[in-house]
Amino acid sequence: MIRTLCALAFFAVAQPTYADSIGVTITGGGSVLSFADIDTVIGWTFTANTDLQVGALGMWDEGGNGFVKDVQVGLWKDDGTLLSVATVSSADPLEAGFRFASVTPVLLAGGNSYTVAGLLRAPDYYRSFTNVTNSPLITWSDSRGDNTNVLTFPTGNTGSEGSYFGANLRVSPAQPVPEPASLVLLGLGLAGIGVRRWCRPDGWVVRR
Fold first, then answer.
1. Does 181 score more than 80 pLDDT?
2. CATH-assigned architecture of domain 21-173
3. pTM
4. What are the residue ranges spanned by the domains of the chain?
């Protein structure tokens, strides 16, 4: 009986793992540019196709040889509310040309719009008017950019698909909250374990 309760408790709390994916992947084309001596916040807006979570923010590293300075990358709601910030360094993992820094998971609601952007320090390079593919979890909307040396919600709209990369993010499907029935099973399992600890091998309860 105790083994059965323990098994029920395990299955009640066990959650499936979800593979994450890069928000956009550069597939070729476009130009490699630099803002020379001007620091710039560059990024893009997107729509969440379903409820999802963001686990890392990143920035394009042209040539894979690191940044002039560490890069701040932010994630905002479409009204400019800041949801998360990460500092991406040259030591962070490189994947598909982007370096990513982990953040506390941020939940995004399906159907809503968001913006991801980073403060690119001169003379680091970025990709412009390049070909990209989206993660199936999001839909690219437009590019954003502002000339500033402070990470801020970018309001300049370039309207050019594939331009200004730039910032990126890692996304995965939102993990479901355990249902009440699962919590009941967990409670039964823990209760069974507690009773077992208070019983002798012959089944009699120890009284004190």
1. no
2. Sandwich (2.60)
3. 0.75
4. 2-14+178-197, 21-173
